[in-house]
């Protein structure tokens, strides 16, 4: 993949309209999350999840729904999962106090369908645990954002820190917004994905920032807008190559990694794309808006090393 | 940046060889005594098994302890001839009224560090009970530390009994650990149906022997259901003997009645008690009660003096041996609630390993092909570094005995994708340097030097995410954090030591030729 930018292409010329686009996307995401909500998995909402494989039988999804309906378990969703005759059932209630809850379901289902239902995976999470997991997940995401904020502040200056965090929040909100829009399930592995996105997007941003700082130190007369443009261009091929290799790895998980990793890899794919975009078109512009200049980066003592 | 001292090279290649051996050992079946016999642990999601989180329900225990406190309080107040009224136990609080002039006397007694009702915990500098007086009303309840003491001692005892019960079932390498103040985490690898264990852990196993009451007397008796039917029986509240006196129990077959029964042996005290009860009550029915359900209520035909007895109760062979197991392991101090359960069948685990391996292989090949296409010769260097990186990563996981989960495999694949980044950063920098720099050695040197801060910053940010994920995540997600985090460390090692050495070797050999990358 060789990207040839036109000679007179300037990244800075596109900041305003793309920032506007980002803003719209963020507002849309927040609105969707607020009004449509998230499809929380049993990890966070509590309840029971059963992955069923029907052995030696062709079973219609409707029959399974019918059977669960008869059991009176409240809200039950049944969907296909992976191969033919594999199904994923989500039951609103967890009933962790009833030791024979799962066994009874299995017996009734097998009897109704006239074939053995193999419960390949059962997750049964009580309301107390799901609340704790949700809190731990939110805490982990907030902590990682805070840790990034502090790390960049220490390594760079507050303007860089502010810019990087804005880009991270942008990435997280849009990724979660897309999950809400598509009603994809949010569970523990999605939290892991979001945290990794935070790390990845930061990684991408830091490389550009590093170059901007270096160039700022080198050239005192050149405006930040020009420096951002040059730095972005200098690091562009690296940014794209790394995104491509990471996406190749993720696509491989998405396509061949089985049904359990689908949501996780999907979130990561979105995150990598949005994260790459935000490093160039969200984080870097903020350095321009906060009027970073040579003085900003020469304050720190390690500037002695440059020429 | 291109110079390596001999000693450094020795160390680098030594580490690579050792870790490679450890990682390759995973694919062999070397005897256990051998040095490299460690293997990566597979998480429950890969090998199949059950994860259970139990919570000690301490409320019944607290209530029972408070009832004992009430008895001691009554005794104290009576002995000291202190008048009191309205002594009650409500909502885990004891309350009563005293005469105005006697509250200070009681307070003095109750806050005396040596009194026997309200223990003083030296280690917490706190009393066992909270105590308040409003005019003549006295309220007593467990203090924060009193509750902690109750919970943690109940948890300790429960842990021992849970271990006993699970060990007796004979599952494969169970993990049973304490979680916080009132929880027990259990991992049972290879177990695809946790129902039996759940049932065994779900019983407190409080065994009592009580007489069935005669129909006329209502006082001091209660209605109690049978374990296996809707029927109820009125039995006395008085406990003639409890399971504490039991020293052994085992399932046996009663040839006479052709059914499975449980035989038990009592200790000396128990044998005496049991002898007395059965002598005094020949002809009456004795109910055997487990967790407030009647197992059976046979008629006492003759005194049982030897301390050996039999319990029948429509047992199957399985239920008889489970019942005996419960009796042998003893009663839990408090009921355990299962608050989280995750079970993965072994066939799903196998499928997950397969799809994980396939996606790792394909992801790896795609990245390798892409790097070769982008960088030709240096691509080979980067790809060799990537292979070494994978071996190091697996070797580290093996040495640390880390647990590999399905998200963990995803972490490895992601590492493959992101690991080349460090090399890409450096190569792109070298390319830039070569535009201004004549000497290729110098260009490589500057490339490595100038890219360093970006490489470090970029990897540390990901490492921060991995550490936070590790400390707050659980189970499979933790496995992801582990591979991602260790992956970063091995990436930096393979890029900065191994790949740098390879490229320096290449550059030194070709320093006079024109190299293009």
Could you list some keywords that capture this structure?
heterodimer; A: 307 residues; alpha+beta; Multidrug efflux transporter AcrB transmembrane fold; 2 domains; 6 strands; elongated; B: 517 residues; Gyrase A, domain 2; four-stranded antiparallel beta sheet; 12 helices; 21 strands; 22% strand
Topology:
The complex is a heterodimer of chains A (307) and B (517).
Chain A: H1 15-36, E1 39-40, H2 42-45, E2 47-54, H3 61-71, E3 76-80, E4 86-91, H4 101-113, E5 117-125, H5 127-155, H6 158-182, E6 185-186, H7 188-218, H8 224-256, H9 262-289, H10 294-298
Parallel strand pairs in A: 1-6
Antiparallel strand pairs in A: 2-4, 2-5, 3-4
Chain B: H1 6-25, E1 41-42, H2 44-47, E2 49-56, H3 59-79, E3 84-90, E4 93-98, H4 103-110, E5 120-121, E6 126-127, E7 129-134, E8 137-142, H5 144-169, E9 175-179, E10 183-189, H6 195-201, E11 207-211, E12 221-225, E13 232-236, E14 241-242, E15 246-254, E16 259-266, H7 268-280, E17 286-290, E18 293-296, E19 308-315, H8 317-329, E20 336-344, H9 346-399, E21 403-404, H10 406-436, H11 440-472, H12 475-509
Parallel strand pairs in B: 1-21
Antiparallel strand pairs in B: 2-10, 2-20, 3-4, 4-8, 5-6, 7-8, 9-10, 11-14, 11-17, 12-13, 15-16, 16-19, 17-18
Helix pairs in contact in B: 1-9, 9-10, 9-12, 10-11, 10-12, 11-12
